[in-house]
Amino acid sequence: MTTGPRSGLQMFQEHLAAGGGPRQPIETLLGIRPVDVSPGRAVMELTASPNHHNGAGILHGGTYATVLDNACAAACYTTVTAGTRIVTTDLTVKFLRSATGESGVLTCEAEVVNRGRRNVLVQASMMDGAGRLLAHATCTIMIVD
What we know:
single chain; 145 residues; 6-stranded antiparallel β-sheet; HotDog_dom_sf; PaaI family thioesterase
């Protein structure tokens, strides 16, 4: 029997065991799905649709950034107590390849690189359905409380 406060990792694992699905309003809005978590790691998926595209018919840069940031925050959250507030203080995204409707399910995997007392450095990669790297991000997340 586990005593003490529930961890963010336990909260995510319970959520996924209960069927998963979006946890936050932004995930519902964009259709981001958490699919896997482990200590310091999170995987999210997005099936891109025309609603995610820019005027040129490719995935909007803001969609890339939002999914990458969301995955980074989830990876960070697995390292704190459930209910702890965290906030992104820096997000750098390198856009490497365009995604379109033919890109399949986009998968974003984030991993904690360094966990300090107050700041957490996380990196994330987004791949298309064929496993091609679309974007890479580094993110600094501050643990508020």
